[in-house]
Amino acid sequence: xxxxxxxxxxxxxxxxxxxxxxxxxxxxxxxxxxxxxxxxxxxxxxxxxxxxxxxxxxxxxxxxxxxxxxxxxxxxxxxxxxxxxxxxxxxxxxxxxxxxxxxxxxxxxxxxxxxxxxxxxxxxxxxxxxxxxxxxxxxxxxxxxxxxxxxxxxxxxxxxxxxxxxxxxxxxxxxxxxxxxxxxxxxxxxxxxxxxxxxxxxxxxxxxxxxxxxxxxxxxxxxxxxxxxxxxxxxxxxxxxxxxxxxxxxxxxxxxxxxxxxxxxxxxxxxxxxxxx
Length: 277
Known about the structure:
By secondary structure, the protein is α+β, with helices and mostly antiparallel strands. It has helices at about 5-25, 45-60, 90-95, 170-180, 195-200, 220-225, 260-275; strands at about 35, 40-45, 65-70, 80-90, 105-110, 115-120, 125-130, 135-140, 145, 160-165, 185-190, 205, 230-235, 250-255. The protein folds into 2 domains: about 5-145, Fructose-1,6-Bisphosphatase, Chain A, domain 1 (2-Layer Sandwich); about 155-275, D-Maltodextrin-Binding Protein, domain 2 (3-Layer(aba) Sandwich). The strands form 4 sheets. It has a 7-stranded mixed beta sheet, with helices on both faces. It has a 3-stranded antiparallel beta sheet with strand order 12-14-13.
């Protein structure tokens, strides 16, 4: 794919991410209203302001690239069309509660080549993570950009596993216990999960639920896979934008590529021996 075009798209997504971060910081602390969607999830006028900005800028700068965002009123996959996949404000609940744990996430999907660019911006820390497929992953912080190195592969007993911070039940801890994972190996995660991966603090994420929307995984997938991780369904099948998961899809796995086969085997054995609550 044309390198100049990829660079222009990445620069544009960076600019939009920083603009989204400015909007978040301007409202952070309670200067916003909260609404409820038909599915009873919460959205703020900050999400909507960022969405309006994106829907004004993107078609003007890249008229041939479609938009597929969480707050889009018209979300439709069109074959043979490129897309920006964007979560305007990932972690809205954390934002509402004035707590770290939210971000802006974006990805670029080429109809010919697949997911090509991933980006995660953490506005409270002014940290930008980004990657172009096949060209490595990078972090931008304190005005400096540096390429990230793949974290070292650890022994099983030293791996750290993700636990969604907002999940209040025992499903994950029970599941990990059956896998032989100790409590000290479990880390609470939020929209900062990508940063935990790139820093080598987190090694495995097992999401025990299906139907994750594409804006929640597309940007992160490009970044972590550039660092040697695999991001798949729990049985190892690939995830693709525009394809509806099959009914058997039960969740998602991020883990170092060399450990994937063994990790999938452990997960499937644990799933078959019990039904998570």
